[in-house]
TrEMBL record:
Residue span of region Disordered: 1-48, 61-81
Superkingdom per UniProt: Eukaryota
Coiled coil in keyword set: yes
Domain TRAF3-interacting protein 1 C-terminal, chain residue ranges per copy: 43-191
Stated name of the protein: TRAF3-interacting protein 1
Species assigned in the record: Xenotaenia resolanae
Keywords: Coiled coil
Keyword Coiled coil: yes
Biased composition (Basic and acidic residues): 31-48
Amino acid sequence: MDGKRMSEDEENDDEQFLVVEAVPPLPDVSETEREPAQELDTDEKHGGLVKKILETKKDYEVTPSSLKSKEQNLVSETARKKEREQVTREIERLRSSIQMVCRSSLPLGKIMDYIQEDVDAMQAELQGWRRENKEHAQALLQEQRATDRAVEPLKAELAELEQLIKDHQDKICAVKSNILKNEEKIQKMVTGINFSSRT
């Protein structure tokens, strides 16, 4: 009877153990290592077979969870390293971009500081050039007027001379035509004389 009761107790304890183990969350590796020793101490009333089953069960639970946790730790560690490297690369890229912007913006800022002075100076210089251009244009106009006044009598004289030249050319042409006519008359007279002398 005692032996039967022991086996029934063992079965009851076994069933209770399975129900209890399914409910709680997975403990840490350190807790799972501590629990087998505590449970073995409390379950000393069980037989040797039950002790072996419990030890095997605890070993099985400890080993896969520790392997899983180690694998998870390795995977999470590599993922963290990759994330850190990626973040570091992004930070370096951002830092270099910021440095480029700062290098470019410094000369631009200096230019913007002096641009108003430069614009004022350029406007003053433009006004000076416009004033000088206007003065030169007026001086040129005055010189053209003076030149036209000085050239006017010369133009009149030139027109008179051209008219005289034309008149002289007309006279020369008239004299030439008279000469040609006289030569024709002389030629006729000479041929007439030669003809009369032969007859």
